[in-house]
Structures are given as structure tokens and as C-alpha cells.
Amino acid sequence: MSQPSSSSHLSQITRAQTQSSWLHRAAxxxxxxxxPFDWLFALVLAGGAxxxxxxxxAFMNYYDKLVLVCAVxxxxxxxxxxxxxxxxxxxxxxxxxxxxxxxxxxxxxxxxAFFLKYFxxxxxxxxxxxxxxxxxxxxxxxxxxSRSATGAAIGSKMTWAAVLMGFTGLMVRWYESYLIxxxxxxxxxxxxxxxxxxxxxxxxxxxxYYETHYNTRALGAFVLLVISAAVGFLMWYSIxxxxxxxxxxxxxxxxxxxxIHVPANFIGYGSFALSAMVGxxxxxKERGVLSDRxxxxxxxxxxxxxxxxxxxxFFTVATILGALWAAEAWGGYWSxxxxxxxxxxxxxxxxxxxxxxxxxxxRGAVAAWWALTGLLVTTFAFLGVNMFLSGLHSYGKx
Length: 398
Known about the structure:
- With about 400 residues, the protein is an all-alpha fold.
- The protein has 13 helices and no strands.
- It has helices spanning about 1-35, 35-55, 60-80, 85-105, 115-120, 120-145, 150-180, 190-215, 220-240, 260-285, 295-330, 340-360, 365-390.
- The model is unreliable at about 1-5 (pLDDT under 50).
- InterPro entries: Cyt_c_assembly (IPR002541), Cyt_c_biogenesis_CcsA (IPR017562), Cyt_c_biogenesis_CcsA/CcmC (IPR045062).
């Protein structure tokens, strides 16, 4: 009886050693393939983080510094694996630091300095982001309907430019909040205005990655539609509620948990939205609408699956972080608050989708319709709860 058990144990050890060896070889191979430009990029990021620590350490607590230091290897690996994102990172840093230099500690210069007033203040940069997303949507559709590679290429470049301006706007808004007052300063992910900007940027970034990975721009027409809808809400919200104004954090949000919970949440939301729009493209392709201009059903199915898998992973992490934050802020991990309840519904929906995919081979129109329905559930959890329900998360009401 002991022999099979021993044999099984040895087999497990062998598999573990093989996997470890494979990972080691893969990491070693990655390092060997690294070019001088890869290491220069890593050096620039490390130098930038060092500059930020030395220049702005007075505005950072322990957790801010830890996040900044840990972000360097993460962004280095991202830049090595996805090279188009390198100039984006450098551009965001350059424009943000330029804006900070022009402000020179005086917030009133936003109305007087030309480049701040029309390009680099947070409101100006976010307006540029919004306009570029809308025009990118238009050009993607022109490219798709007319089979114009030029139209799609312009749409892609505009999307990259929109992401550049949007992240610059968020970085500058962060600095502006401290110019208003040290007690007001906070990371700009605290209200609906700011998280709609974040949602648009994350969704666009994920799309741009898939665009590069699958070498197709046909999906831009669909994914940019949901981003343009978010931009439309953002513009209405700004005009109707003056939401672009920077406000002090409510007490419940004055926590370092917010800095990791909210981004993880919106990586999930952005991925789920992307999967839904890919689902729309799948259903159209299956019914012969624009079928000769869209990627194959297998590619669409793969993008849909990967988007939901990534979104589910981050949404799970965000839910756990939210529970830990709730325990610290309200004394309990779970209170069946409407926002928490609907977050659970979203999680269960995509958990069921992935279970059916992995266990039962879910594919085709059913998977696409389910992904599209998931967008409605997610939208209500994201926005509808704030509009129609109240609870401990009432600071996010419209």
C-alpha cells in the first residue's frame, strides 16, 4: 500500500521541480533577450520613481511610498512585454511634470498660463481625452464600414492619444488637489467623475493590448462605443453637477485601502465591459453582419474569455480588499449594503460564466449573450446602485 503513495509523492515532486525549472528557464530566457533599450527603460522608470520619492516624499505616507516602489518592477515587466506602452508611460510622466512645473505651486495659473488653460490642467486634459475618444470611435467605424485601414489606424492613434491625455489629467488632478490644501489632497479615484475617467482609460488600455496582440483593429468600433457612452455620462455629470470640481474626501474614503481597492475594481469593470462589446461583435459575425470585416469567431471567443478571466481575477481581489476595508471602517467584513450585494451578484454572474466555460465548454452565442447581459448587471452595480439605492456607500450618489 505504501508503494503507490510513495510513487505518487515522487511524481508530484518531479512535476513541481519540472515546473520550477521551466519558470527559471523562461525568466532566464527573458533576461537574455532583453536589449539595451529594455534596460534603459527600466533605468528611466527607477530614476523617475527615485525623483518622485525625493521630491514629493513629504506628501506621501508609508503606503504611498511602498506602492510607488512596487510599481517600478510591475511597469518594467509591462513595458518589456508590451513595448507600445513605453512611450505612453514616458509621455504621461513628461506632460505631468511639465504641468507641475508650469503651476509652480500656484493653482490660479490654470486660468492664466496658456498650456495649462488649454492643454495640461486636469480639466483641459480630460476634455481632450473625451473629444479624442469620441473621434476615435467615429474613425474606427469609418474604417470598419468602408474597409479603410487608414480610418482604423487614425482611430487607434487617437485612442492612444486619449489615454495619454486622460492619465495626464488624472496625475495633474492629483497634484492640484494638494495645491488646494494638504488636507484636501488625494488620489483622484474618489467619486463618480474620477472613476468614470479611470474606467474609460482602463477599458481603452485593455482594448489596445488586444488590438496589438491579435493584430486587428476591427473591434475598436465596438469597444469604443462603451467608452464614448462613459464619456457622454462624464460630460453630462460635469455640466449638471459641476462634478469636475475637486472636493475633500469624506471620512470613509480617507484610507489607503481606497488606493488599491478602486483600481482593482475598475480593472474588473473595464474588462467586463470590453468582453460585452466583443460579445456584440460575435453575435453580429455569427448572423452575417459585417462578417467579412470582423475577426474569426475563434478570435472573438478567445478575447471574450480572456477579458472575463482577467476581469474576474481583479474583481475578486477588489472584493476581498473591500471586505478588509469595510472591517476597518465599519467594524464588519460584510453588511449586505446594496453596493456590496450587487458586487456579489456581479461576482457570481462571472463565476458562473467561467465555471460553465471551463467545466462545460461554454462557447458561441450563449456565451456572447451572457457576456452582454453581464454588462447590464455590472452597469447597475456600478451606476444604478448610486442612482436608485442608498446605504453605506451613499457618498457615491449622483
